[in-house]
Amino acid sequence: MLVFWNVLDVLDPYKERLITSGFVDWRELPAVMAECDIVLAPLVDTIFNRAKSENKWVEAALVKIPTIASNIGAFAEKIQNNETGILVNNIDAEWFKALDLLVSDSVLRGKLADKAHEEIIHNYSTVYTGYNLASFIRKHLARNIGFVLPSTDISGGVIVALKHADVLRRHGWDVTLIDAVSKHALKIAKKTYSYRYELPGFNVVAMHKTKMKAFFDTQVATLWSTVELVKKQPNVRNRLYFVQNFETDFYIPGTGEPRFLANASYCDQSGIRYITMSLWCQKWLKDVFHKESEYVSNGIDLELYPYRERDFTGKIKILIEGDSKSEYKNTDEAFRIVERLDS
User: Fold this and answer.
1) How would CATH label the architecture of 144-295?
2) Which of 39, 112, 51 is closest to 82 using CA atoms?
3) Which among 296, 305, 212, 225 has a CA at the least distance from the CA of 257?
4) For FRET with 176, which of 41, 74, 85, 295 sits at 20 to 30 Å CA-CA?
């Protein structure tokens, strides 16, 4: 008989027939148990022991060893008596009868062990039960959403996407920003300025150095170049394309592939859903590309932009907003027009 931990005084007369063992590393325990023919799991009937788990039966069943256990607590709840193990009341005669039965009947030992093993494999292993646990966890988690950005650098499109991300975050969503900047673009950017890797308050993931396998309720493409990235993510329930402009015209005729791919993003056939912050975009998506879209207005933070009556006293101030490097924004033309105004 193999006895774990201390030998009781009552077994002292049989000590030469006993093999004792102290604590065993959990990685070695299956091999040790597999050397046995029967596992005994006696428990005194106390409130504490009723709260103990059925792990000893589970561990034995995994290596196809039958168990005789006290008929209390989790053992009584989980072991099917004479099917996946033997349950006994804490009476000497019952223990002797059960042990004598299994010692003398190898066929019964095999049947109990096989049945218990089948029960454990199908109802206790993570391969079979993991989905139930994942479903329970998912049900209690906040909904999550990933905004796929062409980069985390400051731009009008990124700022708009961040504003929507912040609104969702403040309403309880778990928001992740996915930076899709390529290694090549990042290398070029670093030559001229300090690239903005972090955005305070947001979880930012760099796509070029991260293999994403996490589940997302929703992922949102925020520029034509991010649409294919969203489509390639396997564990995404809802895929959206947040259209903020007619990005085909970001490129002059003759540009080639970028212009064509931007245009193709508005007639995607994969089932991606379109949303837009512009009624103008909503109109041409419908009229030109026959795509339905949901209108999601940007809104204005009234704390930052409080209403006040216009006052035309003094000089009129004119704001010219736009990236002077972007030809399609015509900021140079705006300056030429302003120069013609009265000073």
Assistant:
1) 3-Layer(aba) Sandwich (3.40)
2) 112
3) 225
4) 295
